Amino acid sequence: MLLGLLEGLPTMLRGEVAMFKMKPQMHYSEEDCPVSPPSSFPRDDELHFEIEMIDFSKVKVVSDDLGVIKKVIDEGQGWESPREPYEVKAWISAKTGDDKVILSPKQGEPYFFTIGKSEVPKGLEMGIGTMTREEKAVIYVTNQYLTESPLMSVVGLEEVQFEVELIHFTQVRDMLGDGRLIKRRLRDGKGEFPMDCPLQDSLLRIHYKGMLLNEEKTVFIDTRIDNDGQPLEFSSGEGLVPEGFEMCARLMLPGEVALVTCPPDYAYDKFTRPANVPEGAHIEWEIELLGFEMPKDWTGLDFQGVMDEAEKIRTTGNRLFKEGKFELAKAKYEKVLREFNHVNPQDDEEGKVFLNTRNLLNLNVAACHLKSGECRKSIETCNKVLEANPAHVKALYRRGMAYMEVGDFEEARSDFEMMLKVDKSSEPDATAALKKLKQKQQDVEKKARRQFKGLFDKKPGEIADAGTDDRGEEQSTSENQKNDDQEDSNGTDTEDVEDVANEPREGLFSRLWPTGRRLFSALGLRRCAIL
Protein backbone atom coordinates (compact mmCIF):
# COMPACT_ATOMS: atom_id res chain seq x y z
CA MET A 1 0.00 0.00 0.00
CA LEU A 2 1.14 3.56 -0.68
CA LEU A 3 2.58 5.30 2.36
CA GLY A 4 0.03 8.12 2.15
CA LEU A 5 -2.90 5.69 2.14
CA LEU A 6 -1.33 3.74 4.97
CA GLU A 7 -1.29 6.95 7.03
CA GLY A 8 -4.67 8.29 5.89
CA LEU A 9 -7.07 5.33 5.84
CA PRO A 10 -6.97 4.73 9.62
CA THR A 11 -8.39 8.26 10.09
CA MET A 12 -11.60 7.48 8.13
CA LEU A 13 -15.02 6.33 9.33
CA ARG A 14 -17.18 3.66 7.73
CA GLY A 15 -19.06 5.22 4.72
CA GLU A 16 -16.85 8.34 4.63
CA VAL A 17 -15.65 9.88 1.33
CA ALA A 18 -12.43 11.90 1.52
CA MET A 19 -9.82 13.55 -0.69
CA PHE A 20 -6.15 12.96 0.09
CA LYS A 21 -3.51 15.34 -1.29
CA MET A 22 -0.17 13.57 -1.39
CA LYS A 23 3.32 14.88 -2.02
CA PRO A 24 5.47 12.68 -4.31
CA GLN A 25 7.39 11.15 -1.40
CA MET A 26 4.07 9.90 0.05
CA HIS A 27 2.94 8.08 -3.11
CA TYR A 28 4.85 6.59 -6.02
CA SER A 29 8.11 8.50 -5.50
CA GLU A 30 8.55 6.94 -2.09
CA GLU A 31 11.78 5.01 -1.77
CA ASP A 32 11.04 1.26 -2.04
CA CYS A 33 7.44 1.97 -3.10
CA PRO A 34 5.56 -1.37 -3.14
CA VAL A 35 3.34 -0.30 -6.08
CA SER A 36 4.78 0.20 -9.60
CA PRO A 37 2.81 2.70 -11.79
CA PRO A 38 3.02 2.88 -15.61
CA SER A 39 6.14 4.60 -16.94
CA SER A 40 4.12 7.64 -18.11
CA PHE A 41 2.56 8.14 -14.67
CA PRO A 42 3.19 11.61 -13.08
CA ARG A 43 4.98 10.14 -10.10
CA ASP A 44 6.88 13.36 -9.31
CA ASP A 45 3.74 15.52 -9.01
CA GLU A 46 1.37 16.09 -6.12
CA LEU A 47 -1.59 13.73 -6.55
CA HIS A 48 -5.15 13.86 -5.26
CA PHE A 49 -6.83 10.58 -4.24
CA GLU A 50 -10.59 10.37 -3.76
CA ILE A 51 -11.29 7.54 -1.30
CA GLU A 52 -14.59 6.04 -0.16
CA MET A 53 -14.36 3.88 2.99
CA ILE A 54 -16.94 1.21 2.23
CA ASP A 55 -16.28 -1.08 5.19
CA PHE A 56 -13.60 -2.40 7.52
CA SER A 57 -13.38 -5.05 10.19
CA LYS A 58 -11.02 -6.19 12.91
CA VAL A 59 -8.79 -9.15 12.14
CA LYS A 60 -6.54 -11.38 14.20
CA VAL A 61 -2.95 -11.57 13.01
CA VAL A 62 -2.15 -15.29 13.12
CA SER A 63 1.35 -15.12 11.59
CA ASP A 64 3.67 -12.16 12.19
CA ASP A 65 4.40 -11.79 8.47
CA LEU A 66 0.63 -11.34 7.78
CA GLY A 67 0.63 -14.54 5.76
CA VAL A 68 -2.33 -15.77 7.82
CA ILE A 69 -5.00 -13.46 9.22
CA LYS A 70 -8.49 -14.17 10.52
CA LYS A 71 -11.68 -12.11 10.41
CA VAL A 72 -14.36 -13.21 12.89
CA ILE A 73 -17.90 -13.24 11.50
CA ASP A 74 -19.71 -14.87 14.45
CA GLU A 75 -18.16 -15.21 17.89
CA GLY A 76 -17.82 -18.74 19.32
CA GLN A 77 -18.51 -20.31 22.70
CA GLY A 78 -16.03 -20.71 25.56
CA TRP A 79 -12.32 -20.01 25.38
CA GLU A 80 -10.72 -23.32 24.40
CA SER A 81 -9.25 -23.65 20.91
CA PRO A 82 -8.17 -26.84 19.12
CA ARG A 83 -4.50 -27.76 19.10
CA GLU A 84 -2.39 -30.78 18.25
CA PRO A 85 -3.62 -33.55 18.29
CA TYR A 86 -7.29 -32.43 18.65
CA GLU A 87 -9.88 -33.83 16.23
CA VAL A 88 -11.87 -31.12 14.43
CA LYS A 89 -15.21 -31.07 12.60
CA ALA A 90 -15.90 -27.95 10.51
CA TRP A 91 -17.67 -26.57 7.44
CA ILE A 92 -14.99 -25.27 5.06
CA SER A 93 -15.29 -23.39 1.76
CA ALA A 94 -12.60 -21.53 -0.18
CA LYS A 95 -12.26 -18.92 -2.91
CA THR A 96 -9.47 -16.92 -4.50
CA GLY A 97 -8.93 -13.18 -4.07
CA ASP A 98 -11.05 -12.50 -7.17
CA ASP A 99 -13.99 -14.48 -5.71
CA LYS A 100 -13.48 -17.64 -7.75
CA VAL A 101 -14.86 -20.56 -5.74
CA ILE A 102 -12.34 -23.39 -5.48
CA LEU A 103 -13.87 -25.43 -2.66
CA SER A 104 -17.52 -25.89 -1.72
CA PRO A 105 -18.67 -27.77 1.38
CA LYS A 106 -20.41 -31.05 0.68
CA GLN A 107 -24.06 -31.02 1.63
CA GLY A 108 -24.54 -32.47 5.12
CA GLU A 109 -20.91 -33.54 5.49
CA PRO A 110 -18.62 -31.34 7.60
CA TYR A 111 -14.91 -31.92 7.08
CA PHE A 112 -13.23 -34.02 9.77
CA PHE A 113 -9.48 -33.82 10.37
CA THR A 114 -6.80 -34.06 13.08
CA ILE A 115 -4.66 -31.05 13.99
CA GLY A 116 -0.98 -31.70 13.33
CA LYS A 117 -1.39 -34.37 10.61
CA SER A 118 -1.19 -32.04 7.55
CA GLU A 119 -4.75 -32.92 6.54
CA VAL A 120 -5.50 -29.26 5.68
CA PRO A 121 -3.17 -26.48 4.42
CA LYS A 122 -0.81 -25.20 7.10
CA GLY A 123 -2.21 -21.65 7.14
CA LEU A 124 -5.79 -22.90 7.47
CA GLU A 125 -4.78 -25.13 10.39
CA MET A 126 -3.05 -22.18 12.06
CA GLY A 127 -6.18 -20.07 11.72
CA ILE A 128 -8.51 -22.78 13.00
CA GLY A 129 -6.18 -23.14 15.96
CA THR A 130 -7.32 -19.66 17.11
CA MET A 131 -11.06 -20.43 16.88
CA THR A 132 -13.52 -21.52 19.56
CA ARG A 133 -16.55 -23.82 19.33
CA GLU A 134 -19.28 -22.59 16.95
CA GLU A 135 -17.16 -19.66 15.77
CA LYS A 136 -17.51 -18.58 12.14
CA ALA A 137 -14.61 -16.78 10.49
CA VAL A 138 -12.84 -15.99 7.23
CA ILE A 139 -9.17 -17.00 7.19
CA TYR A 140 -6.92 -15.32 4.61
CA VAL A 141 -3.89 -17.43 3.68
CA THR A 142 -1.05 -16.43 1.33
CA ASN A 143 0.92 -18.85 -0.83
CA GLN A 144 3.79 -19.55 1.60
CA TYR A 145 1.24 -21.12 3.97
CA LEU A 146 -0.72 -22.96 1.28
CA THR A 147 0.74 -26.46 1.68
CA GLU A 148 -0.63 -29.48 -0.15
CA SER A 149 -3.19 -31.58 1.73
CA PRO A 150 -6.04 -34.04 1.14
CA LEU A 151 -8.51 -31.14 1.43
CA MET A 152 -7.59 -29.41 -1.84
CA SER A 153 -4.90 -28.66 -4.40
CA VAL A 154 -3.21 -25.29 -3.98
CA VAL A 155 -0.96 -25.32 -7.05
CA GLY A 156 -0.69 -21.86 -8.63
CA LEU A 157 -2.70 -20.05 -5.96
CA GLU A 158 -1.36 -16.80 -4.50
CA GLU A 159 -3.97 -16.23 -1.81
CA VAL A 160 -7.03 -18.14 -0.62
CA GLN A 161 -9.92 -16.99 1.56
CA PHE A 162 -11.28 -19.86 3.66
CA GLU A 163 -14.70 -19.49 5.24
CA VAL A 164 -14.83 -21.77 8.26
CA GLU A 165 -17.55 -22.68 10.74
CA LEU A 166 -16.08 -24.67 13.60
CA ILE A 167 -18.83 -27.11 14.55
CA HIS A 168 -17.02 -29.16 17.17
CA PHE A 169 -13.64 -30.44 18.24
CA THR A 170 -12.67 -33.39 20.38
CA GLN A 171 -10.11 -32.74 23.05
CA VAL A 172 -7.22 -35.16 22.51
CA ARG A 173 -4.28 -34.84 24.86
CA ASP A 174 -0.82 -36.33 24.48
CA MET A 175 -0.14 -36.53 28.20
CA LEU A 176 3.57 -37.39 27.95
CA GLY A 177 4.38 -35.64 24.68
CA ASP A 178 5.59 -38.85 23.03
CA GLY A 179 2.29 -40.33 21.84
CA ARG A 180 2.22 -43.15 24.40
CA LEU A 181 -0.38 -41.88 26.89
CA ILE A 182 -3.37 -40.43 25.04
CA LYS A 183 -6.60 -39.07 26.55
CA ARG A 184 -9.48 -38.65 24.07
CA ARG A 185 -12.68 -36.98 25.25
CA LEU A 186 -15.76 -38.95 24.16
CA ARG A 187 -18.42 -36.86 25.91
CA ASP A 188 -18.18 -33.31 27.16
CA GLY A 189 -18.54 -32.68 30.86
CA LYS A 190 -20.04 -29.77 32.74
CA GLY A 191 -18.08 -26.64 33.52
CA GLU A 192 -15.09 -24.82 32.11
CA PHE A 193 -11.82 -26.58 31.38
CA PRO A 194 -9.52 -26.64 33.32
CA MET A 195 -10.97 -24.51 36.15
CA ASP A 196 -13.63 -27.11 37.00
CA CYS A 197 -11.29 -30.14 36.84
CA PRO A 198 -9.96 -31.94 39.97
CA LEU A 199 -6.46 -30.57 39.47
CA GLN A 200 -5.85 -30.50 43.22
CA ASP A 201 -5.81 -33.60 45.39
CA SER A 202 -9.48 -34.52 45.72
CA LEU A 203 -11.87 -37.40 46.43
CA LEU A 204 -12.96 -38.70 43.01
CA ARG A 205 -15.94 -40.90 42.09
CA ILE A 206 -15.42 -42.75 38.82
CA HIS A 207 -16.97 -45.51 36.74
CA TYR A 208 -14.47 -47.13 34.40
CA LYS A 209 -13.97 -50.07 32.09
CA GLY A 210 -10.49 -51.54 31.60
CA MET A 211 -9.52 -53.32 28.39
CA LEU A 212 -6.37 -54.94 27.05
CA LEU A 213 -5.14 -53.44 23.80
CA ASN A 214 -5.35 -56.72 21.89
CA GLU A 215 -7.47 -57.74 18.92
CA GLU A 216 -10.33 -58.85 21.15
CA LYS A 217 -10.19 -55.73 23.38
CA THR A 218 -10.50 -58.08 26.36
CA VAL A 219 -12.35 -56.41 29.25
CA PHE A 220 -10.67 -57.16 32.60
CA ILE A 221 -12.82 -54.89 34.77
CA ASP A 222 -16.04 -52.90 34.49
CA THR A 223 -17.14 -51.20 37.71
CA ARG A 224 -20.77 -51.14 36.57
CA ILE A 225 -20.71 -54.95 36.51
CA ASP A 226 -17.82 -56.19 38.67
CA ASN A 227 -18.26 -53.79 41.57
CA ASP A 228 -22.00 -54.31 42.20
CA GLY A 229 -22.57 -51.18 40.16
CA GLN A 230 -20.67 -49.05 42.68
CA PRO A 231 -18.22 -46.47 41.33
CA LEU A 232 -14.58 -46.39 42.31
CA GLU A 233 -13.83 -43.80 45.00
CA PHE A 234 -10.24 -42.76 45.66
CA SER A 235 -8.20 -39.80 46.86
CA SER A 236 -5.88 -38.46 44.19
CA GLY A 237 -2.24 -37.78 45.02
CA GLU A 238 -1.86 -40.95 47.10
CA GLY A 239 -0.85 -43.51 44.47
CA LEU A 240 -4.10 -45.49 44.85
CA VAL A 241 -4.60 -45.96 41.08
CA PRO A 242 -2.12 -46.33 38.20
CA GLU A 243 -0.26 -43.12 37.40
CA GLY A 244 -1.60 -42.80 33.85
CA PHE A 245 -5.17 -43.30 35.09
CA GLU A 246 -4.87 -40.50 37.66
CA MET A 247 -3.08 -38.10 35.31
CA CYS A 248 -6.00 -38.26 32.89
CA ALA A 249 -8.72 -38.20 35.56
CA ARG A 250 -7.33 -34.93 36.93
CA LEU A 251 -8.01 -33.29 33.53
CA MET A 252 -11.66 -34.36 33.29
CA LEU A 253 -14.84 -32.38 33.96
CA PRO A 254 -17.77 -33.81 35.96
CA GLY A 255 -19.89 -35.93 33.62
CA GLU A 256 -17.10 -36.26 31.05
CA VAL A 257 -16.35 -39.61 29.43
CA ALA A 258 -12.82 -40.17 28.11
CA LEU A 259 -10.95 -42.98 26.40
CA VAL A 260 -7.40 -43.38 27.67
CA THR A 261 -4.68 -45.38 25.92
CA CYS A 262 -1.87 -46.14 28.37
CA PRO A 263 1.59 -47.77 28.08
CA PRO A 264 2.63 -50.48 30.57
CA ASP A 265 4.93 -48.28 32.66
CA TYR A 266 2.06 -45.89 33.42
CA ALA A 267 -0.51 -48.67 33.83
CA TYR A 268 0.13 -51.85 35.81
CA ASP A 269 3.85 -52.52 35.48
CA LYS A 270 4.48 -50.23 38.46
CA PHE A 271 1.18 -50.91 40.21
CA THR A 272 -0.66 -53.88 41.67
CA ARG A 273 -1.61 -55.81 38.55
CA PRO A 274 -5.01 -57.51 38.26
CA ALA A 275 -4.74 -61.28 37.87
CA ASN A 276 -6.09 -61.23 34.32
CA VAL A 277 -3.70 -58.49 33.09
CA PRO A 278 -0.39 -59.85 31.75
CA GLU A 279 2.89 -58.12 32.49
CA GLY A 280 3.84 -55.46 29.94
CA ALA A 281 0.25 -55.05 28.73
CA HIS A 282 -0.91 -51.85 27.03
CA ILE A 283 -4.22 -50.76 28.52
CA GLU A 284 -7.28 -48.85 27.37
CA TRP A 285 -9.59 -47.34 29.98
CA GLU A 286 -13.01 -45.83 29.35
CA ILE A 287 -13.44 -43.42 32.25
CA GLU A 288 -16.49 -41.46 33.39
CA LEU A 289 -15.94 -38.85 36.09
CA LEU A 290 -19.15 -38.81 38.12
CA GLY A 291 -17.96 -36.08 40.45
CA PHE A 292 -15.35 -35.08 43.00
CA GLU A 293 -14.97 -33.36 46.34
CA MET A 294 -12.37 -30.64 46.63
CA PRO A 295 -10.04 -30.53 49.65
CA LYS A 296 -11.16 -28.45 52.59
CA ASP A 297 -10.62 -24.73 52.13
CA TRP A 298 -8.40 -23.34 54.90
CA THR A 299 -9.83 -19.85 54.50
CA GLY A 300 -11.60 -18.82 57.68
CA LEU A 301 -10.08 -21.56 59.84
CA ASP A 302 -8.56 -20.55 63.16
CA PHE A 303 -4.95 -21.46 63.95
CA GLN A 304 -5.81 -24.80 65.58
CA GLY A 305 -8.05 -25.74 62.65
CA VAL A 306 -5.20 -25.00 60.23
CA MET A 307 -2.75 -27.11 62.24
CA ASP A 308 -5.25 -30.00 62.42
CA GLU A 309 -5.65 -29.99 58.63
CA ALA A 310 -1.88 -29.74 58.20
CA GLU A 311 -1.38 -32.75 60.47
CA LYS A 312 -3.84 -34.86 58.44
CA ILE A 313 -1.96 -34.14 55.22
CA ARG A 314 1.43 -34.65 56.89
CA THR A 315 0.32 -38.02 58.24
CA THR A 316 -0.72 -39.06 54.73
CA GLY A 317 2.69 -37.94 53.46
CA ASN A 318 4.44 -40.03 56.11
CA ARG A 319 2.44 -43.10 55.07
CA LEU A 320 3.39 -42.56 51.43
CA PHE A 321 7.05 -42.16 52.45
CA LYS A 322 7.01 -45.48 54.29
CA GLU A 323 5.49 -47.09 51.19
CA GLY A 324 8.43 -45.81 49.12
CA LYS A 325 6.29 -43.26 47.22
CA PHE A 326 8.72 -40.41 47.80
CA GLU A 327 7.47 -38.04 45.07
CA LEU A 328 3.87 -38.33 46.26
CA ALA A 329 4.94 -37.85 49.88
CA LYS A 330 6.96 -34.78 48.92
CA ALA A 331 3.95 -33.30 47.12
CA LYS A 332 1.87 -33.64 50.30
CA TYR A 333 4.46 -31.88 52.43
CA GLU A 334 4.92 -29.12 49.86
CA LYS A 335 1.18 -28.52 49.73
CA VAL A 336 1.13 -27.78 53.47
CA LEU A 337 4.18 -25.53 53.20
CA ARG A 338 2.50 -23.50 50.45
CA GLU A 339 -0.57 -23.08 52.63
CA PHE A 340 1.68 -22.02 55.51
CA ASN A 341 2.66 -18.94 53.50
CA HIS A 342 -0.78 -17.54 54.38
CA VAL A 343 -0.76 -18.47 58.09
CA ASN A 344 0.00 -15.77 60.69
CA PRO A 345 0.44 -17.01 64.28
CA GLN A 346 -1.07 -14.58 66.79
CA ASP A 347 1.16 -15.18 69.84
CA ASP A 348 4.46 -16.73 70.89
CA GLU A 349 2.94 -20.13 71.65
CA GLU A 350 1.33 -20.38 68.21
CA GLY A 351 4.56 -19.13 66.64
CA LYS A 352 6.55 -21.89 68.32
CA VAL A 353 4.11 -24.61 67.18
CA PHE A 354 4.05 -23.17 63.66
CA LEU A 355 7.86 -22.99 63.40
CA ASN A 356 8.35 -26.54 64.68
CA THR A 357 5.78 -27.92 62.23
CA ARG A 358 7.31 -26.03 59.31
CA ASN A 359 10.78 -27.35 60.22
CA LEU A 360 9.42 -30.91 60.32
CA LEU A 361 7.85 -30.45 56.89
CA ASN A 362 11.06 -29.07 55.39
CA LEU A 363 13.09 -31.94 56.86
CA ASN A 364 10.68 -34.49 55.42
CA VAL A 365 11.05 -32.82 52.03
CA ALA A 366 14.81 -33.12 52.44
CA ALA A 367 14.38 -36.81 53.26
CA CYS A 368 12.33 -37.32 50.09
CA HIS A 369 15.01 -35.60 48.03
CA LEU A 370 17.68 -37.76 49.62
CA LYS A 371 15.76 -40.97 48.92
CA SER A 372 15.25 -39.86 45.31
CA GLY A 373 18.96 -39.19 44.85
CA GLU A 374 18.52 -35.40 44.68
CA CYS A 375 21.16 -34.63 47.30
CA ARG A 376 21.74 -31.00 46.33
CA LYS A 377 18.04 -30.27 46.72
CA SER A 378 18.13 -32.03 50.08
CA ILE A 379 20.98 -29.77 51.20
CA GLU A 380 19.12 -26.64 50.06
CA THR A 381 16.00 -27.67 51.96
CA CYS A 382 17.98 -28.40 55.14
CA ASN A 383 19.54 -24.96 54.84
CA LYS A 384 16.08 -23.40 55.24
CA VAL A 385 15.83 -24.95 58.68
CA LEU A 386 19.43 -24.22 59.68
CA GLU A 387 19.20 -20.56 58.66
CA ALA A 388 16.59 -20.09 61.38
CA ASN A 389 18.14 -22.56 63.86
CA PRO A 390 21.82 -23.41 63.19
CA ALA A 391 21.75 -25.97 66.04
CA HIS A 392 18.85 -28.06 64.70
CA VAL A 393 20.19 -31.60 65.14
CA LYS A 394 17.94 -33.39 62.64
CA ALA A 395 18.72 -30.79 59.97
CA LEU A 396 22.46 -31.17 60.62
CA TYR A 397 22.19 -34.94 60.40
CA ARG A 398 20.17 -34.91 57.19
CA ARG A 399 22.36 -32.32 55.52
CA GLY A 400 25.47 -34.25 56.59
CA MET A 401 24.11 -37.41 54.98
CA ALA A 402 23.39 -35.50 51.77
CA TYR A 403 26.91 -33.99 51.76
CA MET A 404 28.36 -37.45 52.22
CA GLU A 405 26.41 -38.81 49.25
CA VAL A 406 27.74 -36.12 46.89
CA GLY A 407 31.31 -36.55 48.15
CA ASP A 408 31.58 -33.31 50.16
CA PHE A 409 33.22 -35.16 53.04
CA GLU A 410 34.56 -32.17 54.96
CA GLU A 411 31.15 -30.49 55.02
CA ALA A 412 29.56 -33.76 56.15
CA ARG A 413 32.11 -34.19 58.95
CA SER A 414 31.51 -30.61 60.08
CA ASP A 415 27.75 -31.25 60.38
CA PHE A 416 28.18 -34.50 62.30
CA GLU A 417 30.70 -32.94 64.68
CA MET A 418 28.36 -29.99 65.22
CA MET A 419 25.69 -32.47 66.29
CA LEU A 420 27.99 -33.67 69.09
CA LYS A 421 28.59 -30.10 70.25
CA VAL A 422 24.97 -28.91 70.37
CA ASP A 423 23.24 -32.03 71.68
CA LYS A 424 25.00 -34.77 73.64
CA SER A 425 21.97 -37.06 73.25
CA SER A 426 22.70 -37.23 69.51
CA GLU A 427 26.10 -38.85 70.15
CA PRO A 428 25.07 -42.39 69.01
CA ASP A 429 23.68 -41.10 65.70
CA ALA A 430 26.59 -38.70 65.13
CA THR A 431 29.20 -41.35 65.98
CA ALA A 432 27.60 -43.88 63.64
CA ALA A 433 27.44 -41.24 60.89
CA LEU A 434 31.13 -40.34 61.34
CA LYS A 435 32.04 -44.02 61.15
CA LYS A 436 30.05 -44.41 57.96
CA LEU A 437 31.68 -41.26 56.59
CA LYS A 438 35.17 -42.59 57.32
CA GLN A 439 34.40 -45.89 55.58
CA LYS A 440 32.92 -44.14 52.54
CA GLN A 441 35.91 -41.82 52.25
CA GLN A 442 38.30 -44.79 52.44
CA ASP A 443 36.35 -46.58 49.71
CA VAL A 444 36.57 -43.52 47.45
CA GLU A 445 40.29 -43.08 48.06
CA LYS A 446 40.93 -46.77 47.39
CA LYS A 447 38.99 -46.54 44.15
CA ALA A 448 40.94 -43.41 43.20
CA ARG A 449 44.26 -45.17 43.71
CA ARG A 450 43.13 -48.07 41.54
CA GLN A 451 41.87 -45.79 38.79
CA PHE A 452 45.03 -43.69 38.70
CA LYS A 453 47.41 -46.64 38.99
CA GLY A 454 49.46 -46.63 35.77
CA LEU A 455 47.21 -43.99 34.24
CA PHE A 456 50.04 -41.91 32.84
CA ASP A 457 51.89 -45.01 31.52
CA LYS A 458 49.12 -45.70 29.03
CA LYS A 459 49.39 -44.85 25.38
CA PRO A 460 47.15 -42.21 23.82
CA GLY A 461 43.67 -43.61 23.35
CA GLU A 462 43.93 -46.01 26.27
CA ILE A 463 42.90 -43.52 28.94
CA ALA A 464 39.24 -44.45 28.50
CA ASP A 465 40.04 -47.92 29.83
CA ALA A 466 41.22 -46.57 33.18
CA GLY A 467 39.21 -47.97 36.04
CA THR A 468 37.52 -50.76 34.07
CA ASP A 469 38.86 -53.29 36.56
CA ASP A 470 36.92 -51.69 39.39
CA ARG A 471 33.57 -53.33 38.67
CA GLY A 472 33.70 -55.50 41.76
CA GLU A 473 34.55 -52.47 43.86
CA GLU A 474 31.74 -50.42 42.27
CA GLN A 475 29.34 -53.24 43.05
CA SER A 476 30.53 -53.20 46.65
CA THR A 477 30.03 -49.43 46.77
CA SER A 478 26.47 -49.75 45.43
CA GLU A 479 25.76 -52.35 48.11
CA ASN A 480 27.03 -49.93 50.74
CA GLN A 481 24.78 -47.24 49.26
CA LYS A 482 21.81 -49.59 49.56
CA ASN A 483 22.65 -50.26 53.19
CA ASP A 484 23.01 -46.52 53.80
CA ASP A 485 19.53 -45.93 52.35
CA GLN A 486 18.08 -48.53 54.68
CA GLU A 487 19.77 -46.93 57.69
CA ASP A 488 18.79 -43.35 56.79
CA SER A 489 15.12 -43.49 57.68
CA ASN A 490 15.85 -41.59 60.88
CA GLY A 491 13.45 -38.73 61.69
CA THR A 492 11.17 -38.84 58.67
CA ASP A 493 8.37 -36.58 59.84
CA THR A 494 8.28 -33.57 57.47
CA GLU A 495 8.07 -32.23 53.88
CA ASP A 496 8.41 -29.51 51.12
CA VAL A 497 10.61 -28.67 48.14
CA GLU A 498 12.05 -25.52 46.64
CA ASP A 499 15.07 -24.22 44.72
CA VAL A 500 17.71 -26.63 43.47
CA ALA A 501 21.40 -25.80 43.35
CA ASN A 502 22.79 -25.64 39.83
CA GLU A 503 25.18 -28.40 38.88
CA PRO A 504 28.72 -27.25 37.97
CA ARG A 505 29.38 -26.88 34.26
CA GLU A 506 31.24 -29.73 32.64
CA GLY A 507 34.52 -29.02 30.95
CA LEU A 508 36.15 -30.85 28.03
CA PHE A 509 38.00 -33.24 30.37
CA SER A 510 34.73 -34.09 32.14
CA ARG A 511 33.00 -34.90 28.87
CA LEU A 512 35.89 -37.06 27.67
CA TRP A 513 36.19 -38.93 30.96
CA PRO A 514 32.90 -38.77 32.95
CA THR A 515 34.20 -41.23 35.57
CA GLY A 516 37.06 -38.87 36.31
CA ARG A 517 34.67 -35.97 36.92
CA ARG A 518 32.73 -38.01 39.47
CA LEU A 519 35.97 -39.14 41.04
CA PHE A 520 37.37 -35.64 41.53
CA SER A 521 34.01 -34.45 42.83
CA ALA A 522 33.99 -37.25 45.38
CA LEU A 523 37.47 -36.20 46.48
CA GLY A 524 36.26 -32.62 46.94
CA LEU A 525 38.19 -31.31 43.89
CA ARG A 526 36.53 -29.21 41.19
CA ARG A 527 39.39 -29.50 38.69
CA CYS A 528 42.31 -31.82 38.09
CA ALA A 529 45.43 -29.74 38.84
CA ILE A 530 47.73 -32.33 37.22
CA LEU A 531 45.94 -32.46 33.87
From TrEMBL:
<feature type="domain" description="PPIase FKBP-type">
    <location>
        <begin position="104"/>
        <end position="170"/>
    </location>
</feature>
<dbReference type="InterPro" id="IPR001179">
    <property type="entry name" value="PPIase_FKBP_dom"/>
</dbReference>
<keyword id="KW-0007">Acetylation</keyword>
<keyword id="KW-0802">TPR repeat</keyword>
<dbReference type="InterPro" id="IPR046357">
    <property type="entry name" value="PPIase_dom_sf"/>
</dbReference>
<dbReference type="GO" id="GO:0003755">
    <property type="term" value="F:peptidyl-prolyl cis-trans isomerase activity"/>
</dbReference>
<keyword id="KW-0963">Cytoplasm</keyword>
<feature type="domain" description="PPIase FKBP-type">
    <location>
        <begin position="201"/>
        <end position="293"/>
    </location>
</feature>
<dbReference type="GO" id="GO:0005874">
    <property type="term" value="C:microtubule"/>
</dbReference>
<keyword id="KW-0413">Isomerase</keyword>
<feature type="compositionally biased region" description="Basic and acidic residues">
    <location>
        <begin position="458"/>
        <end position="474"/>
    </location>
</feature>
<feature type="domain" description="PPIase FKBP-type">
    <location>
        <begin position="1"/>
        <end position="57"/>
    </location>
</feature>
<dbReference type="GO" id="GO:0005739">
    <property type="term" value="C:mitochondrion"/>
</dbReference>
<feature type="repeat" description="TPR">
    <location>
        <begin position="393"/>
        <end position="426"/>
    </location>
</feature>
<dbReference type="InterPro" id="IPR019734">
    <property type="entry name" value="TPR_rpt"/>
</dbReference>
<dbReference type="GO" id="GO:0005829">
    <property type="term" value="C:cytosol"/>
</dbReference>
<keyword id="KW-0697">Rotamase</keyword>
<keyword id="KW-0597">Phosphoprotein</keyword>
<feature type="compositionally biased region" description="Acidic residues">
    <location>
        <begin position="485"/>
        <end position="501"/>
    </location>
</feature>
<dbReference type="InterPro" id="IPR050754">
    <property type="entry name" value="FKBP4/5/8-like"/>
</dbReference>
<comment type="similarity">
    <text>Belongs to the FKBP-type PPIase family.</text>
</comment>
<dbReference type="InterPro" id="IPR011990">
    <property type="entry name" value="TPR-like_helical_dom_sf"/>
</dbReference>
<keyword id="KW-0539">Nucleus</keyword>
<dbReference type="InterPro" id="IPR013105">
    <property type="entry name" value="TPR_2"/>
</dbReference>
<feature type="region of interest" description="Disordered">
    <location>
        <begin position="458"/>
        <end position="508"/>
    </location>
</feature>
<dbReference type="GO" id="GO:0005634">
    <property type="term" value="C:nucleus"/>
</dbReference>
<keyword id="KW-0677">Repeat</keyword>
<keyword id="KW-0488">Methylation</keyword>
<protein>
    <recommendedName>
        <fullName>peptidylprolyl isomerase</fullName>
        <ecNumber>5.2.1.8</ecNumber>
    </recommendedName>
</protein>
<keyword id="KW-0206">Cytoskeleton</keyword>
<dbReference type="Pfam" id="PF07719">
    <property type="entry name" value="TPR_2"/>
</dbReference>
<keyword id="KW-0493">Microtubule</keyword>
<dbReference type="Pfam" id="PF00254">
    <property type="entry name" value="FKBP_C"/>
</dbReference>
<keyword id="KW-0496">Mitochondrion</keyword>
